[in-house]
Specification:
By secondary structure, this protein is mainly α. It is built from two helices and no strands.
């Protein structure tokens, strides 16, 4: 009978050892899958960070261009306001006037500049 218990214990121990080995192999498999997934996600994060930095640079450049365009528009708007003589709406502001038909407004006609 003693030998039967030994065999029985040996079978149980072998079954537990085999179960432990299978559990460890499954754990290692899941660990490798998790590591691979983490690596993929880290690569994706790096790409997204690069895209974000690129978009930020584009946004900054666009904002700078907009600011310059607004300044330029204001400059041309003020030139246009100086150039156009309100008393003679037929005057073309795209030409440089060297004379003034109105002696009381010589500055307006002489300051007229090309806005093209």
């Amino acid at each position: 009978m003693k030998s039967g218990k030994c065999v029985e214990n040996l079978v149980k121990n072998s079954a537990l050892a085999l179960k432990n080995i299978l559990l460890f192999l499954r754990f290692r498999q899941l660990q490798l899958i998790a590591d691979s997934r983490q690596s993929d996600l880290q690569k994706e994060i790096n790409v997204k960070q690069f895209e974000l930095e690129r978009m930020q640079m584009i946004l900054d450049e666009t904002a700078n261009n907009l600011r310059q365009a607004k300044l330029e528009a204001e400059k041309y708007q003020s030139k246009s306001e100086v150039c156009c003589c309100p008393l003679v709406p037929t005057l073309d502001c795209k030409r440089l006037y060297l004379f003034c038909p109105f002696p009381f407004l010589p500055a307006v006609c002489l300051i007229a500049v090309t806005t093209v």
